[in-house]
């Protein structure tokens, strides 16, 4: 029993001689046993002992001496002659253990040549006898083997009784001489394992066994030789082969007997072809030392493992047969169920992963128990009751179960029902009550319909729900939807209200009593029209009809007068005509609805044009089904009045003709079916939004909204939120007016034909995205005045795939760059970039330019990888060279006035190239480069003496190559020159030096003035400098002349102070004039001024009939000079005015020939000059 307790403590990592151990042994065995030295703790070194704290050899311990060897110290060869040794280190070599000596071994003791034990040897640690030596326990000696110690001998001769508390191993022969007793503590069962012969002349107690080989009492050791009276255990029931599911507990049991004894058990396990290994309790094993071994959670890796048990009746043992464990894999956990709807109405379905073949799913819950699906591909379970449900899987062949899935709590609510009743017959003009019975939980919501209009009702507290109706014709009422606090439900029934009316026919308006459409006395015969009746509105009536309720008719003939729809719906099921005199109209309002049903062409709609209100319809619905059926708009119409306003085309074509169709504030202005669209004429105007009514959500036109490629005159965007034409190309013969909001054309085509002002902008913008194309002018439509895209036209700087210019007059860019990913197609016209530029992305191609179709201004090829290859873009041609890699290349070109440079004493052609590379071609022979430009950019240069120039560092230019003659062709091209450095490049001649070499030209704002200064280092025949000023950097006026130095070769300085600068940014340049009248221009400089503008133009935009200028003067205090120029710079008006008593200057331009669009108004007063941009419509 002590042996079992000590092994248990060792497994629990509790020290064998700790206080806890001693307490436990005392509790189990009684305190008297603990008084024996056998169970004392390994003693500590006594005080006064000699301490060995360093390694030594040949240690002698004489009589009475006490020596302690410290831990970690090794002593080689030792002789004890009556002394005492405490070993906490390592002892090896020769050991002489003489009589009267005592050894306490608490660590490692290895007598190399064996040892004669002639005194007490207390072994608490490890005693190991090397091979080839002998150990003898002599008669005056004593060997005490303490629990937990290790004793290994090669050959052992026992001549004195010993007590075994821990197993001993003898790797050779064991001799027990006469008179010797080998015993163990009471209740224990310790063993001596031998490998050689066994000679026994002594006595063994029953709690000591001798083992040879794999089993006790094996080989030549007869039972009588160990003096035991114990009987060998008999196994009555062997462990049986067992099958188990992975993760499920499994047990092996044995039944054994031995007369009058208490048996012990030790289970063993064999994995594969290996040997049996002793099991201990812990982990998945329990009962390893009992009659039943339990494996709590076997795995498939344990399949075919063998298990046996050794049954011991100390010292006799019997080993059982081995039993085989078969472990079957458990099915995969089906996964947590997911409810198709939760909470659900009426029923729902639980879903999990699909069951593999041979596996059955079992659904369980408080509504259904044990319900299974045997379809191996099904993983669903339909249920109609609330509850908590889970699923698990069972292997049909092995019977193994998976773990339970997670559970899902499902709530099933009963679906409500709604049943409508109330069929009856009434006279026209009478009313009746319809009843809807409801089941479920209040409050309810339902929708009922009269066949044309659906009414939604919410928060119904009681059943039945009842409502009153007064149909003018037989009507079927139905309930189309019902829901309660939890569910949507089912509807049933119908209520047919039959209205007795006169036979269908023609109803002619007489208007004898009032304008009430619903009064029979106003009609001939005396019956209000129904949906199947034709209606005639003749001339000369005292009153004309106005709707007092939703009304309908078949055909309607609007001969004269007007039909006021008011805030109701007029439904026309036939054709609209206007027989003589043909002046009849419809009058709408912001709450009027018009529905046109039937088939075929419905005729032409005319609305009263007295005001925006009278020609307004809230919702216009078109549902004409046959062929090209539809309706034609005879004059202008506004669809609007609220956020729900729209043109709803269910079927048919809505033909706008050449009229103006305006959509006002609706969230969804247009709802068009698949093939049902809007047709427009080339003179039509489509407008979104009205002044003061800019509401409505962002909106995208439905697919195929328009009947064909959109070609109309004007498109007006005056709406806060964006309108998207992402599904429709646009072609305009007039203008795109961006008053407010955003027009999004996404990746579509925007084409302007020959309008004088293609784009008019106040506050609106245009948004584009990948794939969009922009075209100005088409074949046969290349007219229109010179035009500049207004500043800020695009929401952000746009990127187009292609930009096409086919417009005889020029096109100018506003203040935004345009990026192209495809091509710039220059068919006709000049593209002027002004202060912006055209950027060609890495996928774009170089534009093909001719004299009549080219770029003036800045163009740029975005940086792209060239490496060792070649590139020819914007007239810069860089050759290939495999010996150097220039990496990425960016080419910027300026043409026209901004492309003219001063190189040495010469002016250049009107073309400047700026080439940037990642790596300069400083090695490998450099790169060859040539340049091409149109003859229009010669700037008067002599093509017989042309020189290529490169700017190393501003303002210094260096010639590259020699003077050359350029061929006299439209496209000028230099011969290649070699360079090892790329920077700015241009071409000039060496014939006509500049008359003036300008050192610098500067401007600085000082308080309310601008101070200008310039210096020259040489002048030739210089008459004067004209100082010019501009508000936009394009159109300049001279403000002063400063006399030049004639001919001079010294530094000359010039100054001028502009005391009345323009407000905002002012641009300046110098015009140098020779005595012979020739002129040269300097570069343009800009300066920011802060002068307050004292004049304002109201309103803006305005009409040409009256332009009002508000000044801060009155009563003719000052005279103002007013000039008006077109955006091209053409002067259309100039005159002096004095403001009236209100401080207003009033100007009329009716008698002046001008082009509608943006104009620049310049106002000069004693306080200075201001410039204003004005839109004249």
UniProtKB/TrEMBL annotation:
Q: Where is the Ig-like domain?
A: 233-326
- The name this protein goes by in its record: Ig-like domain-containing protein
Q: Which Gene3D superfamilies match?
A: Immunoglobulins
Q: Which InterPro entries match?
A: Ig-like_dom, Ig-like_dom_sf, Ig-like_fold, Ig_7
Please give the PROSITE patterns that the UniProt record associates with this protein: IG_LIKE
Going by the entry's taxonomy, the superkingdom of the source organism is recorded as: Bacteria
- Give the originating organism: Rhodocytophaga rosea
